[in-house]
């Protein structure tokens, strides 16, 4: 039976292709987020970049990852098709992961460029191919497609959770070179899984679209204009959200007491001190829990998908996203009133010394725990603020992320003109690129021009302002679509 002919009994079930999308995306995100998890501290400790320069490199890399989807969507729609675009650009992606552990500025820059090209070109096509598969194999079942996008996002964060937690541990035990080989292996697995599912994916029509009538062209322009109005405010979400793996990491390094608290289970205590970049796993863990909750919640509260529109979920996403940096601002205020924290330079030097000593297995040190304990006590770590601040901030930020990002993926596909699904998905991803472009300059003001407290408070205010503006933009979007459908 061909992939686009669906027996009536199977019409309400996900097609087989979902498994290949799920596990392929899981492995690719293990690769991507694993590399990203340890990249900021790699740039500061191994390449010796100051925080503000490392932030600039990091945000420009992320900008590339989310700007190149425009190229990926165009290539796939007109020349290669989504499947072969994904397969072809996975190769430089694997090469990039192998190169990045070489401690040379130019090699790392090349590796980041290749990684951005691979990740960026692939990103819009994988979700667009999944949407197209559902349109062909489960036509008219919008809620099932929306559920698939949420499970797709679940796969992203299963991979992110594992790599965000594990890569800092692997780095601490074996060094950066070994740690960067793990993402390369995951990317190779992702390519193999995706390639195996080819026969279950949608049938693609590649090439320039047929000429449009004047009426079709006008309607397409109106739809794009409505979507870009929504996308414009999403840029502010990304400006704020993208600080969680850089400025939040630097804050954890300098101001957070990273020793496991006394109330934690015994097996988690006993000399356990989290790495500054390890808190990122909270984000991925919360995404998983919240996706499962919302899969249950929306089926009962809004089974048809009409009671709570996309725009309401996105508005709530802005509000909760702003609550995350608001908590961080309170943590920074608490830190300012505490005993003076160790300087960033001293902390980086201690981390670099620890990494060097453990990676060469120096016999003078009894164990990594002894070295960590000595470093922590010397830094006055016990005088820093509780890690509960950053844990709470991640929970609220993640709630905003799930409501906004997961919803925007489905909205981008659902309202895009039929001949521009890949391109419109890429346009949504470009909002992230623009947010990171802003951050390549704005983020360098953290702890230089602005104190952490002021920086995070400004982040929170930015989200509140975007939420207020989106209230009116979202209402206009809903009215315009209702009028177009009438």
Summarize the structure.
The protein is mostly helical. The protein contains 15 helices and no strands. The two termini are 38 Å apart.
Q: Helices and strands in order, then pairings?
A:
Blueprint: H1 17-45, H2 51-67, H3 69-99, H4 105-137, H5 142-174, H6 176-196, H7 214-241, H8 247-255, H9 281-301, H10 310-337, H11 344-359, H12 368-378, H13 388-415, H14 421-442, H15 452-485
Helix pairs in contact: 1-2, 1-4, 1-5, 1-6, 2-4, 2-14, 3-4, 3-6, 3-14, 4-5, 4-14, 5-6, 5-9, 5-13, 7-14, 7-15, 9-13, 10-13, 10-15, 11-12, 13-14
Structural description of this entry:
The structure is a single chain. Helix 1 (17-45) runs antiparallel to helix 6, helix 3 packs across helix 6 and helix 4 (105-137) packs antiparallel against helix 5. The chain has one domain (14-203, 222-485): Up-down Bundle (Growth Hormone, Chain: A), CATH 1.20.1250. The longest helix is centred in the last third of the chain and has 34 residues, at 452-485. The chain has helices at 17-45, 51-67, 69-99, 105-137, 142-174, 176-196, 214-241, 247-255, 281-301, 310-337, 344-359, 368-378, 388-415, 421-442, 452-485. The two termini are 38 Å apart. It has 486 residues and is mainly α. It is globular.
Labels describing this entry:
single chain; 486 residues; mainly alpha; Growth Hormone, Chain: A
**Main β sheet profile:** none
Task: Give the N-to-C terminal Cα separation.
Answer: 38 Å
Helix content percent band:
over 70%
Shape: globular
CATH topology: Growth Hormone, Chain: A
Unreliable stretches (pLDDT < 50, length at least 5) are: 354-378
User: CATH homologous superfamily name?
Assistant: MFS general substrate transporter like domains
- Mean pLDDT equals 82
Following the backbone from N to C, one meets helices and strands in this order, namely: HHHHHHHHHHHHHHH
Task: Please indicate the percent range of residues in DSSP E strands (runs of 2 or more).
Answer: under 5%
- Whole-number total of structural domains: 1
CATH level 1 class label:
Mainly Alpha
What does the radius of gyration come to? 23 Å
């Amino acid at each position: 039976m061909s992939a686009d002919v669906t027996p009536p009994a199977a019409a309400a079930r996900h097609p087989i292709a979902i498994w290949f999308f799920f596990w392929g995306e899981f492995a690719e995100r293990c690769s991507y987020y694993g590399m990203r998890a340890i990249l900021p501290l790699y740039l500061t400790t191994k390449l010796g970049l100051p925080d503000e320069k490392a932030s600039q490199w990091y945000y420009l890399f992320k900008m590339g990852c989310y700007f190149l989807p425009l190229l990926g969507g165009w290539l796939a729609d007109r020349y290669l098709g989504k499947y072969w675009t994904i397969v072809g650009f996975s190769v430089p992606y694997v090469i990039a992961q192998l190169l990045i552990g070489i401690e040379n500025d130019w090699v790392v820059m090349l590796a980041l460029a290749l990684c951005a090209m691979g990740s960026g070109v692939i990103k819009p096509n994988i979700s667009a191919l999944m949407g197209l598969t559902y349109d062909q194999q489960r036509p008219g079942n919008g809620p099932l497609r929306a559920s698939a996008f949420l499970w797709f996002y679940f796969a992203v964060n299963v991979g992110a959770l594992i790599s965000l937690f594990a890569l800092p541990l692997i780095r601490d035990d074996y060094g950066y070179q070994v740690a960067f080989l793990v993402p390369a292996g995951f990317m190779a697995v992702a390519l193999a899984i995706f390639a195996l599912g080819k026969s279950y994916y949608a049938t693609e029509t590649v090439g320039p679209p047929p000429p449009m009538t004047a009426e079709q062209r006008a309607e397409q322009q109106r739809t794009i204009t409505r979507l870009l109005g929504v996308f414009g405010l999403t840029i502010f979400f990304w400006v704020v959200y993208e600080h969680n793996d850089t400025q939040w990491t630097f804050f954890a390094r300098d101001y957070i007491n990273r020793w496991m608290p006394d109330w934690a289970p015994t097996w988690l205590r006993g000399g356990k001190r989290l790495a500054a970049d390890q808190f990122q796993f909270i984000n991925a863990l919360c995404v998983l829990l919240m996706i499962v909750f919302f899969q249950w919640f929306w089926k009962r509260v809004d089974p048809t998908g009409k009671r709570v529109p996309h725009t309401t979920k996105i508005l709530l996403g802005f509000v909760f996203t702003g609550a995350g940096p608001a908590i961080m601002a309170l943590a920074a205020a608490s830190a300012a009133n505490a005993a003076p924290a160790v300087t960033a330079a001293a902390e980086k030097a201690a981390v670099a010394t620890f990494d060097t000593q453990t990676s060469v297995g120096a016999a003078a040190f009894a164990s990594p725990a002894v070295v960590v304990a000595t470093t922590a006590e010397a830094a006055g770590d016990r005088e820093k603020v509780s890690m509960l601040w950053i844990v709470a901030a991640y929970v609220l930020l993640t709630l905003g992320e799930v409501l906004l990002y997961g919803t925007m993926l489905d909205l981008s596909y659902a309202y895009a003109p039929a001949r521009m699904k890949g391109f419109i998905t890429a346009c949504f991803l470009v909002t992230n690129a623009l947010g990171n472009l802003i951050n390549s300059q704005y983020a360098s003001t953290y702890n230089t021009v602005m104190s952490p407290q002021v920086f995070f408070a400004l982040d929170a205010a930015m989200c509140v302002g975007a939420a207020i503006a989106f209230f009116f933009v979202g209402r206009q979007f809903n009215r315009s679509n209702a009028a177009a459908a009438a």
